[in-house]
Amino acid sequence: MNCEFKDVIIVNEGEQFIGSVCIEDGFITKVTKSSSSICESDKDNLPFLLPGVIDDHVHMRDPGLTHKADMDTETRAAASGGVTTVLDMPNVSPQTTTLPLLEERYMIAAQKCHVNYGFFLGATNDNLQEISNVDVHRVPGVKLFMGSSTGNMLVDKEEALRGIFRQCPTLLMTHCEDTNRINQRMAEAKALYGNDPDVIHHPEIRDAEACYQSTALAVQLAKETGARLHVAHLTTARELDLFSPNDKQITAEACVAHLLFTDQDYATLGTHIKCNPAVKSKEDRQALRQALTDGRITVIGTDHAPHLLSEKEGGCCKAVSGMPMVQFSLPAMLSLVDEGVLSIERMVELMCHNPARLFGIERRGFIREGYHADLVLIRANSPWQVNKDIIQSRCGWSPLEGKTFRWRVERTYVNGQLVWDGEQIYPAVLGQAAKFNTLTRF
């Protein structure tokens, strides 16, 4: 597909300008900057063109958990939200902890994904050989659960943990919560509140101390071994003290839910915002928001984790953790732009440029000549409301239902092909496997 965007406000690499972009055979062939400067009326009347969002943290549930979601439905959700590349986690069924299982997921994706994709290999206590043999250009990294995992993906043996940090040939992305601390806090909560404590106690059980202890250990191991560490979904102000601005070795992700919600929202949203690690205090949220602009947070992801509503019933024990978010991450972060939390240029840095840099994603994440034409056209002052009718995810619900957003995703292009036109998905469009060249060891 060949096309041209004329007289759009391009947001790219720290600036915004009126310009034009030409696409031929799936690639950006020309970027032209207009001599006209942007005035406020332009921002109201002209569409904005951004690089497609790269979400470094999604759970598409495929294979094995497809009653909740699959690669087809969740990449429809991604595309309709302006997300053009997703990096998927290994806790599916069977868990992606071997290289043959990893290849099976890539084969499924080639038939079902409407955006570009990559899959993490999962670490266990006993699969160091698989990790050592991973193709670093094939995968974005290795996902390491240092706490609060199910099945055999919790790496809780010190020897195994240190071996992974020493020998992993690519980036390590960690889920950091201290399991012993959580188990202790859960026992205390059950003694006080019964066998299934109300969800308002979730951030007391999976508390700030559990996060800090585990994150501190991960950072210490990375410094000792030279491993390339990316800590997923920070939730606390204290954890942020472990990170240095613009560090290339040890980086952090903030997730949309923790940037939007606080523990006060459990009273109205209940288990709809139950996730691991837990949504925490207003002060923690404010610290995360501040870290978006001071260099300590490198990327914004979603931890998109769809479940059926029936699975969200109960409290801290019975209700499963996780929420769908990929479809609405870009409009939600644009609402923070409107609130003055960060600039639109910085938002693009965190959601498009930095994920591409972090994982060494080949020719994606920027509006540059010679790059894949992964692009999203958005428009301001075009209000709409989240409701069940527009939800693309198979799970069929969102914690943002009833929320009105000012920014609308008008069109999404994946490798130069129109996959979302503002009203419908073009299901014949399929994405590509992303290629990686991650900076791995220091």
Task: Summarize the amount of helix as a percent range.
Answer: 25-40%
Anisotropy-based shape: globular
What top-tier CATH class of one domain fits best?
A: Alpha Beta
The CATH homologous superfamily of one domain is called: Metal-dependent hydrolases
The low-pLDDT segments are none
Helix count equals 14
- What's the CATH architecture name of one domain? Alpha-Beta Barrel
Taking all Cα atoms into account, the compactness measure Rg is 21 Å
Instruction: Tell me the fraction of residues in β-strands, as a range.
Output: 15-25%
Number of extended strands? 18
Could you explain how this protein is built, in words?
- The chain contains 14 helices and 18 strands.
- The chain is globular, with a radius of gyration of 21 Å.
- Helices cover 30% and strands 20% of the residues.
- It has a domain of 308 residues: Metal-dependent hydrolases (TIM Barrel, Alpha-Beta Barrel).
- The longest helix is centred in the middle third of the chain and has 18 residues.
- It has a seven-stranded mixed β-sheet with strand order 3-2-1-4-14-17-18. A six-stranded parallel β-sheet has the order 8-9-10-11-12-13. Strands 5-6-7 form a three-stranded parallel β-sheet.
- With 442 residues, it is of the alpha/beta class.
